[in-house]
Fold:
Amino acid sequence: MTGKKWFTWILILTLSALFLIGGLVFFVDPFFHYRAPNPHFFYKLYDQRSQNDGITKHFDYDAIITGTSMSENFRASQFEEGLGCKTIKVVYSGATYKEINDNLLVAYRSGHNPEYVFRPIDYSLMVKDKDALREDMGEYPDWLTNNNPFDDVKYLLNKDVVLRYALPALFSYFNGETPGHTSFDDYSYTDEDNDYGKDYVLLGKKSFKDPEQEVLFADKENLKMLEENIEQNVVSIARKHPETKFICFFPPYSMAYWGNLYESGELNEILEYKQAAIKQMLECDNIHIYSFTTHTDITADLSRYRDQAHYDAEVNRYILDTIIKYENGYEETDITKVSDRITKENAEDYLMTEKVLLNHFDYNSLID
Structure:
């Protein structure tokens, strides 16, 4: 065989192999980039930033549970049973507000019209640039989220996609597995992988001290950044889609989180940021706001936490049970209790109650 023929055959074989690999990924489509799941395969869901975009585009649903790790341990079935709508869970651990909002925009652009969107408003991410992304978590797969067909080669000829996703889905058919996908109860569910308790929250802290100096007023530049972040990534989408109820909740971070802010003198600054965010969100009647800071039976029980912010799945269940109750028409009638839903009518009272609680709580009781 001459060198020219040898080169030709090598080229043909190489192109054929690439075509077969790309064809396999295109046919199985484990990230749902082109279409809904093939009804003959079982798809394992476990890569949030790669699979969520396709789930949002091509799955059938009426409600979306999204957000950061604060939402990972919610059960979609609980939401479905409580509010009567087919629900997907597409969460992004560590995501900024922009990443979450960008995915929600995908839902509407792909022809969906969700009745509910359920998401947390993380304190740690409020004061961020409106266009900030988490680029410290590896390369963001924009080759899946953009509209450029030419960089699909990063998907179609990706070794990890072939070995970890496409082939297992294909083999599921030949192994006789029941077709479908990981349930949205189990997708991104991490509760069983975590350890909880005050040792993990306090990390050897011996006491909380009174602040040496307090930040009396929120920084104007930070307030502007927060307002732009909330406007672009929370409020604007609700304004454009009044048919959707956007259920936003402030997660019940532990009292250890608030104790550290109290000690550093930053507590009232953070509360001012929260107040500013709430004021913006209340401009939209279809944004329903919930907050659970005053539930010290949860937030002061460090056995429920794996760090200062992350709670166990029973807290997720309680949050969702409470919100479902309010969304189904419940109104607080006991004047001695603080409503978990923040409205235009009670926002001032809620925020004052919260401020008094957090400024006068005995944080050292967490250590005893």
The two ends are 83 Å apart (CA to CA).
